[in-house]
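Sample 1 of the test manifest.
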Amino acid sequence: MSTKLERDFYLQPTLTVACDLLGKLFVVKKRGGSLSGRIVETEAYIGQDDLACHARSGRTRRNWVMFEQGGLTYVYFVYGMYNMLNIVAEPKDAPAAVLIRALEPVDGIKAMQRRRGTTDLRALTSGPGKLCQALGITVADSGRDLTENGWHVIDDGHKVEQIGRSGRIGIREATEKLWRFYDEESRFVSGPKSVQPRRTMKKTMKEN
DNA sequence: ATAACGATCCAG
DNA sequence: TGGATCGTTATG
């Protein structure tokens, strides 16, 4: 059995969404077929009090999607060359999103290899910039509703045994927040995996 | 108006 | 460990 995630899933608290997205399939429709990957690493960015969050200074031309209801994509451009894929969480006007940091390639691996210029499976989607390049995701895809026809997230029954937790990668502010989550067993997580502090946890968690 | 800096990646 | 590369944001 395989079910599409609906609105009620995305409207949940951001940390719940970030944890529960692990193990799900992210699917994009392209000319010539679908591409998909299993989500193995995520990060939460939550509200105006989170100094690492794009919404910290209020609504802008770039981040307006974060203020919409959960279930939309928020894609932005950084470092002059990389796109970052986020999934908006929580109800409208509660700005929050989950950064998709790494996938395990599943469908359309040939196309991903062509876009990435390598055949190494581990190099295909093991990073937020890499996976956008592999799946051909750009800022033009920001604002897509994942509950409508087209792109979506699928629960195919896969279970993640151990979820790892750490500080978020590549930020300077709010480094004390342990809002990065990843599948301990996956070899497709972005490196280095030695980001401190690390500690494992059970299934879903709802506290900071 | 201008300058600094990214939720990164890759080569050397 | 540094350079690529450019839109966004902070500052004068």
